[in-house]
Design brief:
- By secondary structure, the protein is mostly helical.
- The protein has a single domain (21-81), classed as DNA polymerase, domain 1, CATH 1.10.150.280.
- The protein is built from four helices and two strands.
- It has a two-stranded parallel ribbon with strand order 1-2.
- The radius of gyration is 15 Å and the shape is elongated.
Length: 84
């Protein structure tokens, strides 16, 4: 019975992690890297852009960052938020 509970807990925690949404206006580089499909280079560019230009008003503002296209935004928009 303990094994079944452990397996269920692991499955539940994975599904929560897989559906994680991150606020791009206050996320750290490591938090951004935790998102599926977001590596260290893109995460660093997001943080750097935000430090220079301030908070993002729209997810499509991400397209101003080298390496991020409108297709990239569409693929990742379910993982990104502008506020908590």
């Amino acid at each position: 019975m303990k094994h079944i509970f452990l397996i269920f807990s692991l499955i539940l925690s994975f599904s929560v992690w897989a559906n994680e949404v991150i606020n791009i206006n206050d996320a750290t580089q490591k938090e951004l890297e935790s998102l599926k499909g977001v590596g260290p280079v893109i995460a660093e560019r997001i943080v750097h852009y935000r430090e220079i230009h301030g908070q993002f008003i729209s997810l499509h503002n991400l397209e101003r960052i080298k390496g991020i296209s409108s297709n990239w935004v569409e693929r990742h928009k379910h993982q990104l938020a502008l506020s908590d």
